[in-house]
Automatic annotation (TrEMBL), chains A, B:
Residues 24-174 form the Flavin reductase like domain. Pfam families: Flavin_Reduct. One of its GO terms (molecular function) is oxidoreductase activity, acting on the CH-NH group of donors, NAD or NADP as acceptor. This is Flavin oxidoreductase. InterPro entries: Flavin_Rdtase-like_dom, Split_barrel_FMN-bd. The keyword Flavoprotein applies. Keywords: Flavoprotein, FMN. SMART domains: Flavin_Reduct. It comes from Idiomarina zobellii.
Length: 218, 218
């Protein structure tokens, strides 16, 4: 094992430290966030920080930096109060990564990156037609993380659109079956393999392996 | 595609909704959090919400519910101000999942789940010997998410211990090479495959595929 002290991290060059520290949290979710401003200008941004906050009410969060390349997304969410979260799939992950480039405000990343905006009836923000799992979100709260000038965007799920055959009867969604990708660091993209579900853990019981549908194996 | 409205989610049974909504964020990080209280009582808890907050200073966050099964972890972090984050690897993910059972406070999950606590010189919280990437964390701030009674635990990286051969010269850590797992929903465990790195995106440049070490392919 190699040991890195705080001073070792401090002495790294900025880009090296960014690559290193971005790998520490483990695998990240891969989503693109769709937004639209008042003048119908669309925006799409890849985000690797979407995180589950609670299931009742159904809340998801993600981390943003107000002054970063994703500032148009931030401003559109503040202005409209809605956004979409779209799983990044194997079929379009390179186009999704390209949304991280610094496009001017008047250019839609949907156009620039060859992705298709579509709309759910009455919902202001565009979703990504290429995605197999899309979520309509309503902004609940923007919580500042003052120590490092970021914020947690907290939202409530308003609707979910998902390929029907991957939703199991017990509620589990086979996102591996959807081809949803996962991200490492700033630029690593991975497919997953060999899903195993495990039974609910209790102190005095052996764990059981479950099939995707939640039934005990063997 | 199947469409779920807000009212469809509200009508699900609690466990079904929990399984469904926990899959929506995409793939999650798989980590176990090691803590120790003042009386040297250790605790270990699996957490799927660790998220990158920033690289300079190096900040990681994770989401906790004060009254949940992880309340001992919460209390130990408040009391001692330190904790470890340990990547869950293929070799011990079932033992890591077992830490989610409701053990009594006086029982260490290290013992109950057959995992090995070890200590970094002068650092109060135990790390997991079986893990190939362990991080010593100092609590910075606990930020309440009032709308759903959870909190974001914000911490700063104090040290990192990682298998040396996976750290690339540009700073990227090959966590797929480490065997780090990723989680879907409440109970799905996955290995990853076929890492691809992509070049930094710029508006007028084609993306390039990179080797693990950051060099352009082909």
């Amino acid at each position: 094992m190699k040991h890195y002290k705080q001073s070792d991290l401090a002495q790294m060059k900025d880009r090296e430290r960014a690559r290193f520290v971005n790998c520490l949290s483990g695998f990240k979710s891969a989503n693109v966030i769709g937004t639209r401003d008042r003048r119908q200008q669309d925006n799409l941004a890849i985000v690797s920080s979407v995180v589950h906050l609670g299931s009742n009410p159904p809340f998801l969060g993600f981390v943003m930096r107000p002054q970063s390349v994703t500032r148009h997304t931030w401003e559109n969410i503040e202005e409209s109060g809605v956004y979409t979260i779209n799983h990044v799939g194997e079929s379009f992950f390179k186009r999704a990564h390209k949304t991280s480039a610094r496009y001017p405000r008047e250019q839609s990343e949907f156009d620039a990156c060859d992705l298709t905006p579509e709309f759910m009836d009455g919902f202001h923000a565009p979703y990504v037609a290429e995605s197999s799992l899309r979520i309509g979100m309503q902004l609940v709260e923007i919580i500042p993380i003052q120590h490092n000038d970021t914020a947690l965007i907290v939202g409530e799920v308003r609707w979910v659109d998902v390929q029907e055959d991957v939703v199991q009867s017990d509620g589990y969604i086979d996102i591996e079956g959807l081809g949803t990708m996962t991200i490492s660091g700033l630029d690593g993209y991975h497919s997953t393999s060999r899903a195993v579900r495990l039974s609910y853990a209790k102190p005095d019981e052996e764990l059981r392996e479950l099939h995707i549908n939640g039934e005990t194996k063997g």
